[in-house]
Specification:
The complex is a heterodimer of chains A (about 280) and B (about 325). By secondary structure, chain A is mostly helical. Chain A has twelve helices and no strands. Chain A has helices at about 1-15, 20-45, 55-85, 90-95, 95-100, 105-140, 145-170, 175-200, 205-215, 220-230, 235-240, 255-280. In chain A, α7 (about 145-170) packs antiparallel against α10. Chain A is globular. Chain B folds into two domains: about 1-235, P-loop containing nucleotide triphosphate hydrolases (Rossmann fold), CATH 3.40.50; about 250-310, Alpha-Beta Plaits (2-Layer Sandwich). Chain B starts with about 25 loop residues before the first strand and ends in a 6-residue tail after the last helix. Mean pLDDT of chain B is about 85; it is low at about 1-20. The chains are: A mainly alpha (about 280), B alpha/beta (about 325). The interface between A and B is medium-sized, with 22 and 33 residues.
């Protein structure tokens, strides 16, 4: 019960600080720009017959994947911003002390904040990714492999980042935590690129390097898992021989990877609860 | 403000003490509590007992360990060794925290919220039933002198108003024990007076108050018992009257002060300060005044004044602690 009181309070804070309003306005603008650009570019691709019959499909896929790639970045930043100072910031400002002297466990407090942030991020990702996919479908009849699974994985990526952020926030000052989180996120992004290049030039060392980075911080790995389901089967079939999009996977995620990215937020959240419970405030 | 504090018929009886003793549990107890932050010792073997219904002053210079002690009692900080109990339960247990109110030292509340929203949040966490919450919020706002200001965002509050909303927050759950960490540091003299009256009102209701303060006059006016802490150690505790009266002084004004006089008076007490023909003699009992007078006159000095001086809490305090901010 008290967990939900904290969750409600966290959502009230996001609304009151105009975080929600800003996100909604900018998201509407983002979706609007995407819709306009997608319509114009797709119309040109359809009109251009010199590139072959599959060209419109390629164009629609590229545009959709790029749009969702941007959504993924925005959602990731939102998750990191929500979590970077979730504990340390409140502890530094002293707002935490009165709350935690109440009869609620620290785990309940942390879970309340986690649930509220997950709810906000889920709404954001579903609304944004859903809008882009619906626009692509309406304009170009875009049919990805599995849009529901793709969006679920995008949500999972934000949960993963949020949990890692809370873990950092349970023992690092806000700014240090933010630096660490963005560095790890950047590292994971580079690991994904390295792995893609390794596969393209058939260099196992590069591939292994990318895999190791993904194990350490699997944010890009979850995006790549989602990206497979975002592309239409027709595109994937052709891309295997002709080369795909650098930031998207051509093969479905392995079960091992899925288990790892599901376990990752659970483990980091448990570690955050443990660290937070022992900390002196 | 105090006259608006009404007795609460729904107040729970104090929790029973250890089985078999039949005595009510202490309001709070620290037994041999140590706290180290790395190599820094914050609390060194602190033992304190506060009875239910007492107003207890915890005094010490800044950095002496007052806040650490309160944080251990509220479960925010874990003791390195020793035991802390609140209302008969281990400190930090949710059941113990249900019945306490706490005003943190550097409280800064979520300033994006309105005063009533903050009190509603804390009321929910403290377990105030939904049906009673609006009335209780209005009641505590009135109690701290913020009636009609609850709708404003905390961001727009003055420093004094923030401290008042902090007090309201501490009282929202009808606590049996209130821990106040420097509750008047941001208040003007009128506000301080109101807080003293508020504490008096709580005492009248049987609420135990644990007051951390470095403002001695405040403690002097409101506390039943005090403990003085310095560098993490309790250097003195007891009834305020005992603490202040434990060493009284005599002011002696004579025609001349010279070594033979100091030696002669040294038999009756400790000479603390000499200014011209005036000196202060710290004695155990003012009854020695007659003997002091006798001795002075017999030794050939002219005695102009011999006045017993009651030591103020401030003097007692300064005699106990190592000078102020470090």
């Amino acid at each position: 019960m008290t967990t939900l009181v904290v969750a409600r309070w966290t959502v009230a804070e996001a609304v009151s600080r105009r975080l929600v309003l800003a996100a909604v306005l900018l998201s509407v603008a983002f979706v609007g720009v995407f819709g306009l650009a997608f319509s114009i570019l797709y119309a040109r691709a359809e009109a251009d017959t010199s590139e072959g019959a599959l060209f419109p499909v390629f164009a629609a896929t590229l545009l959709t994947v790029l749009g969702l790639y941007a959504v993924q970045f925005l959602a990731a930043f939102l998750a990191l911003l929500l979590s970077a100072g979730a504990i340390s910031g409140e502890a530094e400002s002293g707002t935490l002390h009165a709350v935690l002297a109440r009869p609620l466990g620290r785990a309940q407090y942390l879970m309340g904040r986690w649930i509220a942030s997950v709810a906000l991020l889920t709404v954001y990702v579903v609304a944004m990714a859903g809008s882009l996919l619906l626009i692509a479908r309406a304009v170009a009849g875009y049919q990805p492999v599995d849009p529901v699974r793709a969006v679920a994985l995008l949500v999972l990526e934000t949960i993963l980042l949020l949990s890692a952020g809370l873990l950092g926030s349970s023992f690092l000052p806000t700014l240090a935590n933010a630096v660490v989180l963005f560095s790890l996120f950047g590292l994971a992004w580079m690991g994904g690129i390295v792995e893609f290049i390794g596969q393209t030039v058939a260099n196992q060392t590069l591939v292994n390097l990318g895999v190791v980075v993904s194990l350490v911080f699997p944010s890009d790995a979850v995006w790549r898992a989602a990206s497979y389901y975002l592309q239409p089967p027709l595109f994937l079939g052709e891309a295997v021989t002709r080369g795909g999009i650098p930031m998207a996977a051509l093969t479905p995620p392995t079960t091992a990877l899925l288990l790892w990215v599901l376990a990752y937020p659970v483990v980091t959240l448990l570690a955050a609860l443990r660290t937070f419970a022992r900390r002196d405030l | 403000m105090a006259d608006r504090v009404e007795a609460d018929p729904g107040r729970r009886a104090p929790e029973a003490g250890p089985p078999g003793t039949g005595a009510p549990a202490l309001a709070l107890e620290l037994a041999g509590v140590h706290k180290r932050y790395g190599r820094q010792v914050a609390l060194d073997d602190v033992t304190l007992r506060v009875e239910p219904g007492e107003v207890f002053g915890f005094l010490g210079p800044n950095g002496a360990g007052k806040t650490t002690a309160v944080k251990i009692l509220t479960g925010l900080v874990h003791a390195s060794a020793g035991e802390a109990r609140v209302l008969g339960r281990p400190a930090g247990e949710p059941a113990a925290r249900r019945r306490i109110g706490y005003l943190p030292e550097h409280f800064r509340f979520q300033d994006w919220a309105a005063g009533t929203a903050l009190l509603d949040f804390h009321g929910r966490l403290a377990g105030v039933p939904a049906a009673q919450r609006p009335a209780r919020i209005a009641e505590v706002l009135e109690l701290v002198g913020l009636a009609g200001r609850g709708g404003q965002r905390i961001r727009t509050y003055s420093k004094g108003m923030s401290q008042r909303i902090g007090l309201a927050q501490a009282l929202i759950g009808r606590p049996e024990l209130v821990l106040l960490d420097e509750p008047t540091s941001a208040l003007d003299p009128v506000g301080r007076r109101e807080v003293r009256d508020l504490i008096g009102g709580l005492r009248a209701q049987g609420v135990t108050v644990f007051l951390n303060s470095h403002l001695l006059s405040e403690v002097e006016l409101v506390c039943d018992r005090v403990a003085v802490i310095d560098r993490g150690r309790v250097v003195r505790s007891g009834r305020l009257a005992d603490l202040v009266g434990s060493a009284t002084a005599l002011r002696v004004v004579v025609d001349r002060v010279d070594p033979p006089l100091l030696e002669a008076l040294g038999r009756y007490g400790r000479v603390r300060s000499v200014e011209g023909g005036s000196l202060t003699l710290l004695v155990d009992d003012v009854e020695v005044a007659a003997a002091v007078a006798d001795c002075t006159v017999r030794a050939g000095y002219r005695l102009f004044q011999l006045v017993p001086v009651q030591r103020s809490l401030e003097e007692a305090f300064l005699g106990l602690v190592h000078g102020g901010d470090r």
